[in-house]
Amino acid sequence: MTKVLVVDDDPHIREVVSFALAREGFTAVEAEDGKRALSAFEQHGADLVVLDITLPEMDGTEVCRTLRQSSTVPIVFLTSRDDEIDRIVGLEIGGDDYVAKPFSPRELVARIRAILRRTELSEPRDRDDSPPRALSHGRAEVEPESYKAFWSQREVVLTATEFGILRTLMERPGKVYSRDELMQRAYPGTRVVSSRTIDSHVRRLRSKFRAVGGDPVETVHGLGYKLGPC
Question: Domain of 29: which CATH number?
Fold first, then answer.
């Protein structure tokens, strides 16, 4: 069963989210603060983390930074803050999505399913399917089956959303994708997210590649993004 780590200091929220997950066939592991969240992840692991931003002991952004040092596990932030900048900052440090409080448990589960579909964890692939082929363009390469990305044979660790964006661009190297198109490909099955959210993920993706000497994404001003010279 797919395991979800639910981190929130409000026991009622943990109970509601865990119940909604269990009803849909997921296993929920709970933690009430940041330090316990890291301990639970180390002991039990998780296929996805639902993470409140405002936590005692260690806030959600710090938990995310710590997890990202060793894991690409998908992270969905819960936030009660109205300032969009706070949400974008969460995505900049490696989150995959966010849900604002108060929220619908059904919507949260739908977001979780959509992210897990991108990481091929929610449903097993048909045994008769041939494995998806690796995509390469110049020095950039992605391996869809293992969710790995490379630049000049050096691995670049991406979140599920960042990988989805890069894979979309590499599937059609000459195509310019609008932000709406990238939203639809990177967020299948979810409601439309803001263009700033996509920009945040692209910015993070490019930063990771620049750290190893490359940049596979080109901004087409007024239109969107395409695969750049590699």
Answer: 3.40.50.2300
pTM above 0.90, yes or no: no
Residue 26 exposure: Cα atoms within 13 Å on the Cβ side: 27
Q: What is the pLDDT of residue 120?
A: 60
Contact 179, 224 (CB under 8 A): yes
Which are the contacts of 29, defined by CB distance < 8 A and separation ≥ 6?
Answer: 3, 4, 5, 6, 40, 44, 46
Q: Hey, what are 138's tokens?
A: 């110049």
DSSP 124: P
Q: What is the pLDDT of residue 159?
A: 84
**Phi, psi (degrees; rounded to nearest 5) at 34:** -65, -45
Of the three residues 93, 118, 143, the one that is the final residue of a domain is 118
Q: For residue 61, what are the domain limits?
A: 3-118
Burial per residue of 46-80, b for 16 or more beta-carbon CB atoms within 10 angstroms, e otherwise:
bbbbbbbbbbeebebbbbbebbbeebbbbbbbbbe
200 alpha carbon, distance to own chain's centre? 12
pLDDT above 70 for 12 = yes
Preceding amide of 56 cis, omega within 30: no
Q: Mean pLDDT, to the nearest integer, of 185-214? A: 78
156 in the same domain as 52: no
